[in-house]
């Protein structure tokens, strides 16, 4: 992300981009024919040539803006338009009907405005906020054009109308923001909106491994496939049910795939699961599963082969990182949440413990290729 010192420049570019929209003589300003109940719990699915993202619409905050987007989407008005402006890791702008015609590239940003009265509200321009483009400084000049914040833009709060939030696909939005632009800030290669579909917001899905009983969780095994060999583990859901569920969720979603063993403390622990050691960034689904856990300290002794959750100074800061105890460590008892044990591959644990280290960091990368849930 750009630093705070870059934000004034970003804002100047944004205001310039929005001011380039030519003020038009307004027709009658749009008033939504839809009731709040009809617009409630609606989403806009934006399909682009770089992927799709989903906007949760906010009719209570901006009913006319939401109603106008729903109307245009159902008419196919956005189909074939482009994201014509992008500020890298800042925001993207699209929705201009003029952008359907590649021959009118110099006029992108000038169309589709002067249709909506301002509905500035208390919604903030945080990452994922969807807000209305204005023609210059006229607050009542919004229309079909919108912008999506890739990073927080507090300077826009109270000046532009937020009417939606990206609930899925923010990485697609971020990718669009990284498109190459010309000296005028216009995106060089067309990134088209293929279609905008309005749908009811789906019911939230239950987290994986959230409904199994303790007995069912007890029957599950996992294999830690490392570059040195496999380690088979079982779990203690009767002692630490939420830690077991968390570990299985992360494993099944591939969060642990490609991480490194980042710590080898001989005669104590080997440790992995630290996100910065992962070869690739997490996708959005994986990111949503990463959360901190309240402690579930229990009477399990930290002896050789025990799996336990790493944490910071805050007892409720455990997240993804875990360790395997390599010798009796009574100082950890009641201070860290033990949630499983090694059932097979203890020799692999010993091989990892024996690698050459610099301090407690292995000199040669040992990779946790994946955690396979059996």
Can you walk me through this structure?
The structure is a single chain. With 374 residues, this protein is α+β, with helices and mostly antiparallel strands. The protein folds into two domains: 4-200, Cyclophilin-like (Cyclophilin); 214-373, Cyclophilin (Beta Barrel). It contains eight helices and 19 strands. β1 and β2 form a beta hairpin. It is elongated.
Compact overview of the structure:
The chain has 374 residues and is an alpha+beta fold. The chain is built from 8 helices and 19 strands. It has 2 domains: 4-200, Cyclophilin; 214-373, Cyclophilin-like (Cyclophilin, Beta Barrel), CATH 2.40.100.
Total tally of structural domains: 2
Number of DSSP E strands: 19
Helices and strands: which structural class?
alpha+beta
CATH homologous superfamily designation of the largest domain: Cyclophilin-like
Write out key terms for the chains shown:
374 residues, alpha+beta, Cyclophilin, 2 domains, eight-stranded antiparallel barrel, 19 strands, 25% strand, disordered N terminus
Topology:
Layout: H1 7-19, H2 36-39, E1 42-48, E2 51-57, H3 63-75, E3 81-87, E4 91-94, E5 129-132, E6 146-149, E7 162-168, H4 170-177, E8 192-200, H5 214-218, E9 222-226, E10 230-235, H6 241-252, E11 259-260, E12 263-265, E13 269-272, H7 284-289, E14 306-309, E15 322-325, E16 338-344, H8 346-353, E17 357-358, E18 361-362, E19 367-373
Antiparallel strand pairs: 1-2, 1-8, 2-7, 3-4, 3-8, 4-6, 5-6, 5-7, 9-10, 9-19, 10-16, 11-19, 12-13, 13-15, 14-15, 14-16, 17-18
């Amino acid at each position: 992300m750009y630093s705070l010192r870059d934000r004034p420049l970003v804002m100047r570019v944004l205001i310039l981009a929005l001011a380039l929209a030519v003020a038009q003589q307004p027709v009658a300003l749009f008033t939504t024919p839809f009731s709040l109940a009809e617009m409630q719990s609606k989403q806009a699915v934006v399909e682009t040539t770089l992927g799709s993202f989903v906007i949760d619409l906010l009719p209570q905050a901006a009913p006319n803006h939401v109603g106008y987007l729903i109307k245009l989407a159902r008419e196919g008005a956005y189909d074939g338009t482009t994201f014509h402006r992008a500020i890298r890791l800042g925001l993207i702008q699209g929705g201009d009907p003029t952008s359907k015609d590649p021959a009118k590239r110099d006029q992108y940003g000038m169309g589709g405005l002067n249709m909506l009265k301002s509905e500035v509200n208390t919604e903030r321009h945080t990452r994922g906020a969807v807000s209305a483009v204005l023609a210059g400084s006229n607050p009542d000049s919004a229309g079909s054009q919108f912008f999506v914040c890739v990073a927080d833009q507090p300077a826009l709060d109270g000046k532009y109308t937020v009417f939606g939030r990206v609930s899925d696909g923010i990485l697609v939005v971020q990718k669009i923001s990284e498109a190459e632009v010309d000296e005028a800030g216009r995106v060089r290669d067309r990134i088209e909106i293929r279609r905008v579909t309005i749908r009811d917001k789906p019911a939230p899905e239950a987290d994986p491994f959230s409904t199994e009983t303790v007995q069912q969780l007890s029957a599950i095994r996992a294999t830690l496939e490392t570059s040195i060999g496999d380690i088979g583990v079982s779990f203690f859901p009767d002692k630490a049910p939420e830690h077991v569920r968390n570990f299985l969720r992360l494993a099944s979603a591939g969060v642990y795939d490609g991480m490194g063993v980042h710590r080898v403390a001989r005669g104590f622990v080997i440790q992995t699961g630290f996100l910065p050691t992962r070869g690739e960034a997490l996708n959005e689904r994986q990111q949503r599963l990463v959360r901190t856990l309240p402690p579930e300290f229990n009477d399990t002794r930290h002896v050789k082969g025990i799996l336990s959750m790493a944490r910071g100074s805050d007892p409720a800061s455990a997240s993804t990182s875990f360790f395997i105890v390599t010798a009796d460590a009574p100082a950890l008892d009641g201070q860290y949440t033990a949630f499983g044990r090694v059932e097979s591959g203890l020799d692999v644990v010993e091989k990892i413990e024996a690698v050459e280290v610099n301090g407690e960091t292995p000199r040669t990368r040992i990779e946790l290729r994946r955690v396979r849930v059996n």
